[in-house]
Design a protein that fits this description.
InterPro entries: Aminotrans_IV, Aminotrans_IV_CS, Aminotransferase-like, BCAT-like_C, BCAT-like_N, Class-IV_PLP-Dep_Aminotrnsfr, D_amino_transT. By secondary structure, the protein is of the alpha+beta class. It is built from eight helices and 15 strands. It has helices spanning 23-27, 45-58, 67-81, 122-127, 150-161, 204-216, 227-231, 263-276, and strands at 3-6, 9-11, 30-38, 41-42, 86-93, 109-116, 129-135, 166-171, 174-178, 182-187, 190-193, 220-222, 235-240, 244-251, 254-255.
């Protein structure tokens, strides 16, 4: 079953009512994480919660719980919901107060949902996906996992309107990342990905995949690359908590490589699955 947590209480998801003056609702004034749970084990939970803590610090938002307390709450929620394979959404906002742009004198709000996991099918992993190249119109602090996702939503929908799984974004002539994924190009056996600076989210799955690549002896270069480089790549792929390691087989009208997931992507995904256990 699904379950929610809001400001200290576990409740049925459908019964939770968010106050109209909640700043996440009115301003998007908060941060969030998504954690995938495999067979009862939240994958890389500590890493996700440390990133949440860093995002909160970046927007000057005090964390109402420690990382350890959040871990306990997540385990409790999974037990209460009787979920083994799940997706946990965790959000912290600047609280509930009459609308003013400046920070209120109010305690932060914490909400979570615990739902059965909706994973991509093996058919999707085996076929790969089509993506659309779009301008990156997001703000300049993309390393913060902020609730302000309107540019991401618009990019994702534009991609969907074109029959694509994802939008791969381009800023100042270089590929940054996907609307909800990190992006990579492979050329001559080398994996290229945008440097982990303020222009991209420092993906938890991204970090795990770079570790996996090192273990496999696959060279990774964190450097800028152009849309033209991506279009001429031997392989390309996306990573995220929900997409894991997913081949890009077409960018707009251009087929990438053979049009099927290539050997580098297959090796990385297989090794990543071992990491999941």
């Amino acid at each position: 079953m699904s379950l929610a947590f809001f400001n200290g209480e576990f409740l049925p998801t459908e019964s939770v009512v968010i106050p109209i003056d909640e700043r996440g609702h009115q301003f998007g004034d908060g941060v969030y994480e998504v954690i995938k749970v495999y067979d009862g084990k939240p994958f890389l939970m500590r890493e996700h919660l440390v990133r949440l803590e860093n995002s909160a610090k970046a927007i000057r938002l005090e964390m109402p719980y420690s990382v350890e307390q959040l871990e306990d709450l997540i385990h409790e929620g999974l037990t209460r919901a009787e979920l083994r394979d799940a997706q946990v959404y965790l959000q912290i906002t600047r609280g509930i107060a009459v609308r003013l742009h400046a920070f209120p004198d109010a305690p932060p709000s914490v909400s979570m949902t615990f739902r059965p996991s909706k994973s991509l099918t093996e058919e999707v992993f085996n076929a790969g996906v089509k993506v659309a190249l779009l301008d990156d119109e997001r703000w300049l602090n993309c390393y913060i996992k902020s609730l302000n996702l309107l540019p991401n939503v618009l990019a994702k929908q534009t991609a969907a309107d074109r029959g694509c799984f994802e939008a791969v974004l381009v800023r100042d002539g270089y590929v940054t990342e996907g609307s909800s994924t990190n992006a990579y190009a492979v050329k001559d056996g080398v994996v290229y990905t945008h440097p982990a600076n303020k222009r991209i989210l420092h993906g938890i799955t991204r970090a795990a995949v770079l570790q996996v690549a090192a273990e496999l002896g696959i060279e990774v270069r964190e450097e800028l690359y152009t849309p033209e480089f991506l279009l001429n790549a031997d392989e390309a792929f996306l990573t995220s908590t929900t997409a894991e390691v997913l081949a890009i087989t077409q960018v707009d009208d251009t087929v990438i490589g053979t049009g099927k997931p290539g050997p580098i992507v297959r090796k990385l995904h297989a090794k990543f699955r071992e990491l999941i256990g």
